[in-house]
């Protein structure tokens, strides 16, 4: 199997410090890879660099597009990058308000990405939006309400629908469950787990929550001080951590 | 497809078509960095071959490394020394070297070849029992209806009351959770099964049901390595015993 995304020695520094350094990994189709670490460890910088939101300083990054075409992401033209983001990628922000448009209805928030890839039939778009609202367990009769009328957990689900409606192959998520209360978190996690496996999505998730990582991820990368200090199968890294930092991280989780 | 490193391991698997697992001179040392780098020897010098239709029961006192060995064989613990080779379902049954395999390959092996049942169920919030049990079949591409029917049959056989099937097992009793876990572990009929005290908190009647299921798996040709705390179950399922001794500790 060919990897979907391949990073080699990828680096992004801010004035020669912080950021992330020397990150290499392969992400295969259908795999969920979690990036864990404390705040300031460079995990969000890494995610943004991988999603081409910030430019990398060094290393290489390759992506295998739908028809098997291998793209050098660091040398991609701007129009091509935008096309990729519209058609094959999704990005779920930590704060749903950053990922939603507040000035249009819930239905329009889901419908817009479809229009951006060429859907023109209003009835079809509305029907797709209705279906996606149901799929993320939102009341479809509220399709014409604005995002501000929904609770935080609902807004997060709306943002997920907006990102998945175009059937992307790769989805980036930045702390998708942070800031939600635990009962809402559990529901969102279950939803994400079901969607990623039924849609055969490849996902890169940044989280500081070990529980989230254990539930969702096939693989983990543990970051400290901008570097990946340990990587492997989720249960192996969490049950038999090798690096001192990972051992501290795992043993700091409060038992319930 | 990437070539998988097989090296010195492949010959025994070619010579013996029944060989499923070969572990050579395995060792496991834990280093606790948070506690001054204390090193704990959990396992030393264990070698083991398991063939189809065999059930090897691990015996030895507490601390002998029985669970550690099983976890190493599943890839849950990284072996510190030695090698583990497992016959793949794909690639014409060529063995995969678990020690040093890519996470990607270990995941594939777990889906198709190696099943692991522990005494604890890791509950997933909100997922109903029947779905939880059917999941390993669905991930192997079995149709929804068939997967659910087989899950229902297995739960019934394990005496899990039907009224519980639509509920998430978080609120079940210890014994009920364990039986759900066993159903989930056995349903996909993996050709290699690792069982870590699957009968620990079961009553005598349910223990017999589980023992019967294990014997059926063995007779179907599964290779099994297990830990069982009661002599009764051991006697029923075992074809062979492997004695482990606690490593000498400094």
From TrEMBL, chain A:
Q: Which Pfam families match?
A: ABC_tran
Source superkingdom? Bacteria
Alphabetically, which GO biological process terms does the record hold? organic phosphonate catabolic process
Q: Does the keyword Nucleotide-binding apply?
A: yes
Q: Any idea where the ABC transporter domain is? A: 5-250
Q: Which GO terms describe its molecular function?
A: ATP binding; ATP hydrolysis activity
* Keyword line: ATP-binding, Cell inner membrane, Cell membrane, Membrane, Nucleotide-binding
NCBIfam families, alphabetically?
A: CP_lyasePhnK
PANTHER family from the UniProt entry: PHOSPHONATES UTILIZATION ATP-BINDING PROTEIN PHNK-RELATED (PTHR42764)
Entry protein name: Putative phosphonate transport system ATP-binding protein
Give the originating organism: Paraburkholderia terricola
Q: In the record, what lineage is assigned to the organism producing the protein?
A: Bacteria, Pseudomonadati, Pseudomonadota, Betaproteobacteria, Burkholderiales
From TrEMBL, chain B:
The keyword Cell inner membrane is assigned to this record: yes
Q: Which residues form the ABC transporter domain?
A: 21-250
Keyword Cell membrane tagged: yes
Which keywords fit this entry according to its UniProt record? ATP-binding, Cell inner membrane, Cell membrane, Membrane, Nucleotide-binding
Alphabetically, the GO molecular function entries are: ATP binding; ATP hydrolysis activity
Look up the domain of life of the source.
Answer: Bacteria
Name the family: Belongs to the ABC transporter superfamily.
Q: What protein name does the entry list?
A: Alpha-D-ribose 1-methylphosphonate 5-triphosphate synthase subunit PhnL
Q: Which organism is it from?
A: Paraburkholderia terricola
Per the UniProt record, the lineage of the source organism begins with: Bacteria, Pseudomonadati, Pseudomonadota, Betaproteobacteria, Burkholderiales
């Amino acid at each position: 199997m060919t990897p979907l995304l391949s990073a080699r020695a990828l680096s992004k520094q801010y004035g020669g410090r912080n950021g992330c350094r020397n990150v290499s990994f392969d992400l295969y189709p259908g795999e969920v890879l979690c990036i864990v670490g404390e705040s300031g460890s460079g995990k969000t910088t890494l995610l943004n660099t991988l999603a081409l939101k910030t430019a990398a300083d060094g290393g290489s990054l390759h992506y295998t597009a739908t028809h098997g075409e291998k793209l050098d992401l660091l040398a991609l033209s701007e129009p091509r990058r935008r096309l990729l983001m519209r058609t094959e990628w999704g990005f779920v922000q930590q704060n749903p308000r950053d990922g939603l448009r507040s000035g249009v209805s819930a239905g329009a928030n889901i419908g817009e990405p479809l229009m951006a890839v060429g859907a023109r039939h209003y009835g079809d778009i509305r029907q797709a939006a209705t279906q996606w609202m149901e799929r993320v367990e939102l009341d479809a009769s509220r399709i014409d309400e604005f995002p501000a009328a929904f609770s935080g957990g609902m807004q997060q689900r709306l943002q997920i629908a907006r990102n998945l409606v175009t059937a992307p192959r790769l989805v980036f998520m930045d702390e998708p469950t942070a800031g939600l209360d635990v009962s809402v978190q559990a529901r969102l996690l279950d939803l994400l787990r079901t969607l990623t496996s039924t849609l055969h999505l490849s996902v890169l998730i940044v989280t500081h929550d070990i529980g989230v990582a254990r539930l969702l991820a096939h693989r983990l990368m543990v970051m400290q001080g901008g570097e990946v200090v340990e990587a492997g199968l989720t249960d192996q890294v969490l049950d038999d951590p090798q690096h001192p930092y990972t051992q501290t991280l795992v043993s700091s989780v409060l038992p319930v | 497809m990437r070539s998988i490193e097989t090296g010195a391991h492949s010959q025994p698997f070619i010579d013996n078509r029944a060989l499923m697992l070969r572990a050579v001179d395995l060792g496991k040392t834990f280093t606790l960095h948070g506690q001054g780098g204390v090193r704990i020897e959990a396992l030393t010098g264990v070698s083991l071959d398991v063939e189809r239709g065999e059930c090897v029961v691990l015996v030895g006192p507490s601390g002998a490394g029985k669970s550690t060995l099983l976890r190493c064989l599943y890839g849950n613990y990284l072996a510190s020394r030695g090698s583990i080779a497992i016959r793949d379902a794909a690639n014409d049954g060529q063995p995969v070297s678990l020690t040093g395999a890519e996470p990607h390959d270990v995941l594939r092996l777990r889906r198709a070849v190696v099943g692991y049942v522990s005494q604890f169920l890791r509950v997933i919030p909100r997922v109903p029992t029947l779905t939880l049990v059917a999941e390993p079949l669905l991930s192997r591409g079995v149709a929804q209806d068939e997967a659910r029917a087989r899950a229902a049959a297995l739960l019934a056989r394990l005496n899990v009351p039907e009224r519980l099937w639509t509920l998430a097992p978080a609120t079940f009793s210890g014994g009920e959770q364990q039986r759900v876990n066993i159903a989930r572990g056995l349903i996909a009929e993996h050709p290699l099964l690792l069982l870590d005290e699957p009968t620990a908190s079961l009553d005598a009647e349910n223990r017999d049901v589980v023992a019967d299921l294990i014997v059926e798996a063995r007779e179907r040709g599964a290779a099994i390595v297990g830990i069982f705390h009661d002599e009764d179950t051991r006697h029923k399922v075992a074809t062979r015993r492997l004695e482990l001794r606690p490593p000498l500790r400094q």
